[in-house]
Write a structure and sequence with these properties.
Blueprint: H1 14-24, E1 33-37, E2 50-51, E3 61-62, E4 66-69, E5 83-86, E6 91-94, E7 106-109, E8 114-116, E9 120-123, E10 133-134, E11 145-147, H2 155-163, E12 168-172, E13 176-181, E14 186-187, E15 202-203, H3 206-217, E16 220-223, H4 231-243, E17 248-252, H5 263-270, E18 272-276, E19 280-281, E20 287-291, E21 294-299, H6 303-322, E22 331-336, E23 340-341, E24 347-357, E25 360-365, H7 374-377, E26 381-385, E27 391-392, E28 398-402, H8 406-410, E29 412-417, H9 421-433, E30 438-443, H10 446-455, E31 460-463, H11 475-481, E32 487-501, E33 522-525, H12 530-541, E34 555-556, H13 559-568, E35 573-577, H14 578-583, E36 587-601, H15 602-605, H16 608-617, H17 620-629, E37 632-633, E38 640-641
Parallel strand pairs: 13-16, 13-17, 14-15, 17-21, 19-24, 22-25, 29-30, 29-31, 33-34, 33-35
Antiparallel strand pairs: 1-12, 2-11, 3-10, 4-6, 4-7, 5-9, 8-9, 18-20, 20-21, 22-28, 23-27, 24-25, 24-26, 26-28, 31-36, 32-35, 32-36, 32-37, 32-38
Helix pairs in contact: 1-6, 3-6, 4-5, 9-17
């Protein structure tokens, strides 16, 4: 190993890392107090107890419309012995909320009062003392404790505080966090025209994500300008931050074990490295250090890693500084839809999509890469796989932390199978028209969708499986793989499938026969996908050995990923749909028009959610949006396909 490379000499488990942080930074003595107006205190933490200044209500008031009376003057009244009272002497008209006259102690509802001539009223039932009266101090009594110190103020609290005469509050100052992004490849997004990013450059987003997380945890942050991968510049910035008013310092990037990862050395030169590496995934490269009395965290450069590291290490410290409990997400039992391997010795935070299928919540894993921020934005929950477990078994219940309300998860329409851009259109239209519903799609290929239907872990599957014997789509596969599973087949779209190439087709690719050329790099779809089956069918027709195609064994899971690979230069050509090529302004060489259908499990077909889904599929608005994508035909969209 080169001498200038870092090694993880101080790696710890997650519990060990947290204990190290809490030992070195107790967190309860470094936050000052400030005074804010009560309505502005929502979300803030009280630095001292709050006592009521006045009673609420601060007078006896009527709780009903009616007459105020002295209760003892009504005793003995009944249907056979009614009592007559004189207004202004024995009784007083008043409305809800009015002050009770000093000589009275009860209210009789107006519905139980008969108004007579001569300024008199008649009652046929007695009142008891304090009947329908809100007594002074009924809600709040002056000097009583409203909220203890370290209480987090909510909107409900504001009403009680103002009612108790408390118009300003002493709250803990928000802990200040300095965030320092590093990396030669980083550029600021502010002022950059969309699409102007050059190859090899990366938009700096992590500091803004971390800033939002700091705000949500009750802190405030200041962002430093982007630093290059320069040890002297980083050391100078850390020294300045440590001398400033920030109570926590976060660097972003440069925390791993590479030759240009300088964070560990910079921290060591100014203070002490306490932790370098935590046995968790994502988030392993995180550093915990100390400069003087201040904690410094070297956050990983990958976005999911930096988020997990913040939530597991930084946020608990912020909460301790404020004297409030850390966030605890609700957990529920879920069943993985397939076996999920994991590394021994590493605690993994697996992002999953969740949905209620039948009487169980099923979990489908999302991409596990630490740089895949959409694996968090699309996730419904997180399954934590312990470091002593090699993975999860299919259908074996495990606990998942919820990232969304359970009600939203129970209203997920779970689609598994082949990818198509029209599913994104459906997801948007469903949410726009029925805000309680969501469409959750996982892209595992057409065969994966059929198997998911058979295992009962989804409501429907997207499929475009070509029968190479007779040229039909999907039906023969349903008969073969789902012989005992009642399903309905609903046609979604006809779509153009072909070769996606760079604008102008610089390699002069004419068709499938060119894929075996030595100067062509191909990007494939995963095994089991309808696109892969189509490709293999055409290769067999042309008598082309797949092993002669450079890139045949390199695959992606969606048409858009194939198009992105071509756009980036990672491949010269890929097989995909016209809509994906058009979306990225790429050229397209047609190969076939294919049929893309939805297999819907029979036991869910009559459900309300599927009824709503099919209404949108059959709507004119959906068909118009699909046709606008290009490369689609919708003349039979929404039709139920029958087969013998």
């Amino acid at each position: 190993m080169p001498a200038d490379r870092n090694v993880y000499l101080k790696m710890k488990t997650l519990p060990e890392a947290r204990q190290t942080i809490f030992t070195h930074f107790p967190g309860l003595d470094g936050v000052s107090s400030e005074t804010v107006a009560t309505p502005d205190a929502v979300g803030r933490v009280l630095s001292e107890p709050v006592f009521a200044i006045v009673c609420s209500p601060n007078f006896h008031s009527a709780a009903m419309d009616g007459i105020a009376v002295k209760a003892e003057k009504t005793f003995g009244a009944g249907e056979t012995r009614p009592k007559t009272l004189e207004i202004g002497k024995d009784a007083f008209f008043l409305n809800t909320g009015n002050v009770l006259p000093e000589t009275t102690d009860a209210v009789i509802m107006i519905e139980h009062v008969q108004i007579l001539e001569g300024n008199r009223v008649k009652i046929e039932a007695p009142a008891f003392p304090w009947q329908y009266v809100r007594k002074m101090g009924e809600d709040i009594v002056a000097t009583e404790l409203l909220f203890p110190q370290n209480h987090v103020v909510t909107p409900y609290c504001v009403g009680a505080l103002l009612s108790g005469g408390v118009f300003s509050l002493a709250v803990k100052q928000k802990p200040k966090v300095a965030i320092i992004p590093t990396g030669n490849e980083l550029v600021d997004w502010q002022g950059m025209p969309p699409g102007a990013l050059k190859p090899g450059r990366v938009l700096e987003t992590n500091s803004f994500v971390l800033g939002g997380l700091v705000d949500a945890a009750g802190g405030s942050y200041a962002r430093h300008g982007i630093l290059p991968d320069d040890p002297e510049a980083l050391t100078a910035a850390l020294r300045q931050a440590a001398q400033g008013d920030a109570q926590i310092i976060l660097t972003v990037g440069g925390s791993s074990a590479g030759a240009e990862d300088y964070t560990r050395a910079a921290i060591a030169s100014l203070g002490e490295v306490l932790v370098h590496g935590v046995t968790m995934m994502p988030g392993k490269p995180v550093i915990v250090g100390k400069i003087g009395t201040k904690p410094i965290f070297g956050m990983p450069g990958y976005p999911v890693s930096t988020i997990v590291a913040f939530e597991q290490l930084v946020r608990p410290l912020l909460c301790r500084m404020l004297g409030k409990p850390d966030i605890e997400r609700r957990t529920i039992p879920v069943e993985p839809t397939r076996k999920i391997p994991s590394k021994l010795g590493i605690e993994e935070f697996l992002r999953v999509k969740l949905g209620k299928v039948g009487d169980r919540i099923v979990a489908t894993p999302l991409p596990r890469g630490a740089g895949t921020i959409t694996s968090l934005t699309q996730a419904d929950g997180i399954i934590r796989i312990p470091n002593h477990v090699e993975g999860l078994n299919e259908h074996e219940p495990v606990m998942a932390e919820l990232l969304r309300p359970l009600s939203a998860i129970e209203n997920n329409i779970v689609v598994v199978g082949s990818h198509d851009n029209t599913l994104d259109v459906l997801a948007d239209m469903i949410r726009a028209r029925h805000s309680h519903l969501t469409l959750s799609s996982s892209h595992v290929g057409s065969m994966g969708g059929l198997l998911a239907i058979r295992r009962g872990v989804c409501h429907m599957a997207g499929t475009h499986l070509l029968d190479t014997q007779d040229g039909t789509y999907n039906i023969s596969y349903i008969k073969r793989y789902l012989p005992d599973t009642p399903v309905r087949l609903v046609h979604l779209v006809f779509r153009d499938q072909g070769l996606i190439v760079l604008p102008g087709n610089p390699k002069a690719i004419r068709g499938i026969q060119d894929l075996c050329r030595k100067d062509i790099r191909f990007i494939n779809r995963q095994a089991g996908s309808g696109t892969r089956i189509l490709l293999d069918y055409r290769l067999a027709q042309l008598d082309i050995d797949p092993s002669t195609i450079s890139g045949y064994d390199t695959d992606e899971f969606t048409h858009m990923s194939v198009a992105a690979a071509v756009l980036s230069g990672a491949a010269d050509v890929g097989l995909g749909i016209y809509a994906a090529a058009r979306a990225l302004n790429l050229d397209f060489i047609p190969v076939v028009t294919e049929q893309y259908d939805l297999i819907i499990a029979e036991n869910y077909f009559e459900s309300e959610n599927i009824r709503v889904f099919l209404e949108i599929v059959r709507s004119r608005a959906f068909k118009e949006r699909v046709q606008a994508l290009g490369g689609y035909r919708t003349e039979k969209t929404g039709e139920i396909i029958q087969w013998a």
